[in-house]
Design brief:
The complex is a heterodimer.
Chain A lengths: L45 H14 L15 E6 L4 E8 L12 H14 L14 H14 L3 E5 L2 H12 L5 E5 L4 H10 L2 E5 L4 H8 L6 E6 L11 H10 L3 E5 L14 H4 L8 E5 L9 E5 L1 H10 L1 H4 L6 H16 L2 H19 L11 E5 L6 H11 L1 E2 L2 E2 L10 E5 L6 H17 L5
Parallel strand pairs in A: 2-11, 4-5, 4-6, 6-7, 7-8
Antiparallel strand pairs in A: 1-2, 3-9, 8-9, 10-13, 12-13
Helix pairs in contact in A: 2-11, 3-11, 4-5, 4-9, 6-7, 12-14, 13-14
Chain B lengths: L3 E16 H7 L8 E3 L2 E13 L5 E10 L12 E10 L2 H11 L9 E7 L2 E8 L2 E8 L5 E12 L4 E15 L5 E4 L19 E12 L3 E2 L1
Amino acid sequence: MVPEPEETPSHAARKTPGGDHPPDRSLDYDYSNFFWGAGDDMFDILEPFEEWFREARPAGYYLFGLPMRTAPATRIDIIETKTNKELKNLINLASYNYLGLSYRPEVIEAVVEATRKYGSGASGSPILSGTIELHDELAAKIASFKKKEQALIFPSGYSANLGVIAGLMRSGDLVVTDQYAHASIVDGIILSKADVRYFRHNSAADLERKLRGFKGKKLVIIEGVYSMDGDLAKLPEIVEVSKHQGARIMIDEAHSTFLFGKNGRGVTEHFGLEDEVDIHFGTFSKTLGGIGGFVAGSRALITYLKGFARSRVFSCALPPGVTAGLIRALEIVEAEPELRTRLWGNVEYMQDLLRKGGVDIGDSQSQVIPIMVRDDDRIFKIAEELIHEGVYLNPIRYPAVGKHRSRFRISITAGHTRQELAEGAEIIRRVLERYGLCR
Amino acid sequence: MPLTKYCFKNAVNAFFEMPRENARAILPAHLQPMEIRHGEAVLAITAFDFADSMVGPYAEIFLAVIVPPLVRPGEPMPKSAFYPFMLATSTQAARDHAIERWHLPHHMKNVSVDFEESNKRMSVRVHEAGVPILDFAISPHTWVDADDLYQSFMHTQADRFKVNVHMKGRFTEHEEETGELMLYDHPMCDKLHINDIAVYPFREMWMQNGVQTFEELESI
């Protein structure tokens, strides 16, 4: 028989403000603990969150959003905000600038010229006064590049997914998406009020299970390259199942448009399935180094979305300078296929270096290479050591990925020199080895 | 403060995605399901292998929906909160105790909960005189010492309750999706849309040689 003790248990759970403070266990908690709170006052959660974050920030959360003092090129200077020290000449393995276009002189010049001519902003919604000739030119160039009838430009990738999904799907419809779908896809589904089912990552069999038996409008949404693992959609199997079940298909090629396929049109081109996919989504913030999103498809699709994609209708159009920079960047993508060749050479080189160094890079098939740490408690410490030893990488921890699926995410670019990659790989190996994380 | 302690050899716990509407149908009106993503609530299945308690050794299986914790300024911050909607035990004494003291809804017959640990994997098989109820399995990650606070919500026709539950012991958790679940057609699973419950856990948790401590039941 266990006696009933009279004293309070010696638990070390953190207290909300006003209580006695046990030893710091801030990293036992994370954002997910503060998303929901029962009770009647929505503000009850604010103070506990603020107090937690005050402790969690110096423990590691300060590593997110460190301000850069340079362009997001392959070498950068940053402010380390814990000590307010400037760290100089770090090897940047964190930016999306896959072809190094954001700092290309021709792109910058196009931005400057357009800004001089048109001013800093579009000053209106694209359906009213916000459309300038550059927007139409960019949309036409994107449609031509993607070999689609038309394209529609959005102010961000996030707003493009919101606008397309909520523009097309309605209450009572069904969206089935991969369990690792980006937040913008999930938020688009929420906004649409359609029913949602998630299929196990890249599993065509589970997709079929989730689609089977549903009568009504069905949309399957997948990504070309999954941004946390760098693996590709198993497009042939997913297309087959979707077609068999009578579902339309939308692909988010945020991390694959302008890179994959012989002409860079994306993973759909890579698999020879461009015409099998109904809705082609992409962003301008990754490979083109700017900001914005697009959807490409049939003329009828774009005409409909012009009327019903509310995130575009009720947002200001892209700034003219950004738009001109994107046009120039796209021209470079088309004129210089050697950039992609250099990128894929760099990817192969870096993957080889890391694997030989005993680093776990998961199942990456792309320029996104995860460094699997699988240790939520130590990843911040490892990140600190990496930046102090010369590599800029962001830690990725629960809830952005699963518990103990923490990792760093490397973004390889065409701009990296082999020397930078070799130096970066060696620093990563050295730091991970210190933690017993190399095989 | 009077506390009630239960010592266990194993507490094997896994979280599975379930349709939000299924969770809402199970929950009382004053509780909402927590969603891990839009439309997906969480079914928690836990098997206990109690070695010592006020009612002696026994085994228990409990099914719960994860709900938002009750957060109050100045009070301990729980790691998560449960609404247990179906429990079963291996002894009548354990069942009577839990119903009387904690208002926990039970399947009113004894069940067997078989734990089988092999090759870094824990498999749990729950059955009633050989009739299967559910099988699930999980694997460990890194073992650490843990001492965490959870909340459990219960109710009767007239009252609503909350109890703080502390779990202390060697603990491991991860989301590598290595586990599995099989639910059978059995009265214990009647409230679940079995075909819509994920067949693998998105989170696997395991505590060994631990103590579960209940604080006093609180009316809310």
